[in-house]
Amino acid sequence: MPALPDFNVDENKKVSVDMMYRQGFYDFYEDKENFTTVIRLPYKCDASMFIILPDEGKMKDVEDSFYIKYLKDWSLELGMPKFKISGSYNLNGILKEMGVDHAFDGNADFSGMTTSKVAVSEVEHKAILNVDEKGTEASAATTIEIVDMSTLDQPKTVIINRPFMVFITDHTTRSLLFIGKITDPTAN
Predict the structure, then answer these.
(1) Where does the record place the Serpin domain (predicted)?
(2) In total, how many domains does the chain have?
(3) What residues contact residue 150 under an 8 Å CB cut-off, 6+ apart?
């Protein structure tokens, strides 16, 4: 499949991106009523990445009304940009609300770690999601590869060349592990 190097950030801005391509069977659903295409990329563990690709100019509508729909197993040739997103979250307030506030004052006992009088000043959680041909690397889990399960003569082609959303879910716990919106894959 020829490379489509342009990613349409919005109607006025395009950026060149490294596209990666893979052909195989993926759970796939086109929702004309809600202006979106949903693709599930399974991992080797009990997790999956969902790509939600809104129709042109429909990101806000999809964000406002998104529900995971029934997916169908279709043969797809999928093209999407490599991307990396990250987020930082300060956990001081949450930990204090949970009763872990003594560690933040000068009376905390850290004698098992140091002889100095210390206290926790900052607790920050950073989540990183990096997606390329090798697979997906996330702060919570690392996967190896999306396997090419089969090829068909005429697969449907889906090119992710405009803003999209990504979810990573754990099937066992039914937990949402990561959520993000990619508007410009060239921005970190």
Answers:
(1) 1-185
(2) 1
(3) 24, 25, 75
